[in-house]
Amino acid sequence: MKRFLILAALLLSVIPVRAQEGYVPSAANLAAREQFAADRFGIFIHWGLYAQPGRGEWVMQTQNIDYREYARLAGSFYPSKFDARAWVKAIKAGGARYITITSRHHDGFSLFRSAASSYNAADGTPFGRDILAELAEACREEGIRLHFYYSHVDWGRTDYWPRGRTGLGTGRPDGQAGDWQHYQAFMLAQLTELLTQYGPVGAIWFDGVWDHDAQPREAQPGIWGLYDQYALIHRLQPGCLIGNNHHLNPFPGEDIQIFERDVPGENTAGYSGESGISRLPLETCQTMNRSWGYNITDRDYKSADELIRYLARTAAKGANLLLNIGPRPDGTLPDEALERLAEMGKWLEINGESIYGTQAGDIAEQPWGVSTRKGNVLYLHLLDPSVLPASGRLTVELPAGARSPKLREAVLLDGGSPVPFRQEKGTVTLTIPPFSGADRVVALRFR
Ligand code: GLC
Prior knowledge:
Elements: H1 2-14, H2 27-39, E1 41-45, H3 59-62, H4 67-70, H5 84-93, E2 98-104, H6 131-142, E3 145-151, H7 180-196, E4 203-207, H8 220-224, H9 226-236, E5 241-244, E6 257-260, E7 282-287, H10 304-316, E8 319-325, H11 335-351, E9 359-360, E10 369-374, E11 377-382, E12 393-397, E13 407-412, E14 421-424, E15 427-431, E16 440-446
Parallel strand pairs: 1-2, 1-8, 2-3, 3-4, 4-5, 6-7, 7-8
Antiparallel strand pairs: 9-10, 10-11, 11-16, 12-15, 13-16, 14-15
Helix pairs in contact: 1-7, 5-6, 5-11, 7-9, 10-11
The structure holds alpha-D-glucopyranose.
Alpha-D-glucopyranose (GLC) binds next to loops.
């Protein structure tokens, strides 16, 4: 506790209490944004004490579990099969270029050694290991970038006051007992640890601002002390990107824009109603089944083909896909997730050039599929063979303007065979050979 207070005092004295209002990203930050956008595919990991009850990461809230009783799960946190290297290898083979892991979720438990709170995997469990340190090392070895999810919400800390709209049944006292300044100092101390103990951090991914969504948008940075947090992060690691899953338009100081369970521009999940599409790099997070944290009864997995198509549709909007896996309490990744990862990796090995480093395609989504672009190559992602006629003939309208001069060749990325085509004024008519599978990519190489 004493160490924490000293650290907090130290921090408060050195943080420039400069709002990020006139935020100008550093050169390192701009380079990191480019890298991030080129990565296009990351894996989200939701893991914590909640893996043990196996009912998702919101179990404390959905079952109204008292935070003192919940905290006992730390006593049985012993993921005997946890192997950071095995995770990272499988994720890399799946074609993902980065990992975003829950360093601390709404339940308040941290996966990393923290002088700010012993309620963490290294100091507060029989396992006694720093999960993030092991993961950071494995990521370094495999060349995978590491991002940290960090929750603003805490359903167990009594200094989290005023309380928001969630976690009201977890036994935290209702009254003016909290101490927001103290809570903020705690978060700043933990963020400092995350940015100084694990090497380069690709991004900090905040979540929880929606807990106070009864307050107007403009009030949110003040309520949460966002600008102090953002300034601290950018000072400690200028190249670390900041994203915030607040479901609002980005605030100054944020480097990427996050969409939950929807590709940018859609709002099927109901979280993207208030946000437009900014000019920042974009990221869509999505689940493989229906849950983020491990859910022992959730077998409702999307197929590998569906996930590949989702990746293509996300890339076609100029966004990254952050696809979630909820590891089991023993530390292994669910078999269903591993199988899907392997399938995605196989597809990406052949078709990766139509995803990594691409921009949104200039042809809007069509019944047959979507498009991405890289330089003078336009990739057509054929997502639905059933809409093509038996002749395989497909006419696409080319984007107007100088970006689509004469077509030099059209080839299938899988196998490389040429696709017969006829170019007329603003259109190209292709004759696509019969196909099945998730996404058949045709590369149109223009002169
Ligand atoms: C929502 C959920 C949270 C999850 C996040 C991931 O904010 O509340 O549990 O971590 O989405 O996108």
